[in-house]
Structure formats: C-alpha cells, structure tokens
Amino acid sequence: MSKKLLFLIPVLALFGQGCINVTVPDPTPEAATPMAPSPVAPTETASCPDLPQVYYFNKLVFSSREISSIQSNVIEPLLAYYAALPGQSIVSIMIKRTDTGISVESIVDQSTSEDPVYQGFIHPRTGTTYPRWEPEVVPPGYEG
Asked: What CA–CA distance (Å, rounded) separates 93 from 65?
C-alpha cells in the first residue's frame, strides 16, 4: 500500500475555519544514522472532522428550510455520485448564494493523481427549495 503525504486545506482556512488533515508515513530507516524523534506518531492522523467539509459562505442568509433542501437535494446526490466513481472522493464543498440559486464548488481527491480536481456549478432555486442535482449528461455525438 502506497502512502502519500496529504495536506487538505479548504478555502475557508483563510478565515480560520479550515482544517488540515495530515497523514504521516511510517518511517523506514534508510541509513544507520540516528534520526531525531518525530513529534507525531508514525500512523497518527491529525484530529479533524470527517470529510467532506461543507462550508456555507455567509450562512446567515440561508433559512433552515433552504439548508435542509440543499443537504438532501444537492449535497447528498453529489456525494453519492462521486462515491460511485472508483478512486474519487469529495474533500470539501463551498456553497454560496447567487441571485438565482447557489454556486457549489468542490474539491475532489483522486487516488490516481497527486493533483485534486476543482469543480463547480450553479444550481437553481425555486422559492426556498432546490431541485435534486443530477450530473450533466453528454449528448450522443458530442465530440468536444
């Protein structure tokens, strides 16, 4: 099993609300030179809330009904979609209100790459509810 040092810093870390997850690989002595003891145990992981982290930009503008609708109709289908894809998981989601709905931006960790994927979309609002999110389907014959 390969170990990779993974630092995940959500966008809101700039505002003091972020979290850094650090996985420290097991030390493997490659030479006979003594090493200074590490302040972090070899398999210790920093204590952070479960991923994905969901952030609402200016959360006070959302009613509890809107937050509930976003959770059940946008966040949960989005997480289920990425959970079904092999080797991909959502690390963080940022939700901002727009004039016509919400802007959803997420960071996706890929097990096949050191680089994360940044993706986003605008989701419409109907009153105080949000329709169920569905992934975009590429039309037949599209050659991009």
From this structure: 19
Question: What is the chain's length?
Answer: 144
pLDDT digit string (tens) for 49-83?
677 889 999 999 999 999 999 999 999 999 999 98
Phi, psi of 21 (to 5 degrees): -100, 125
**The pTM of the whole model exceeds 0.90:** no
Amino acid sitting at position 134: E
Residue type, 130: Y
SS3 track for 2-55: CCCCCCECCHHHHHCCCCCECECCCCCCCCCCCCCCCCCCCCCECCCCCCCEEE
Rounded CA-CA distance 108/93 in Å is 9
Residue type for 43, please? T
Which residues lie closer than 8 Å to 35 by C-beta, 6 or more apart? 27, 29
The closest alpha carbon to 21, from 30, 5, 37, 8, belongs to: 8
Decide if 109 contacts 91 (C-beta within 8 A): yes
Distance between CA atoms of residues 70 and 54, nearest Å: 11
Using an 8 Å Cβ cutoff, are 55 and 70 in contact?
no
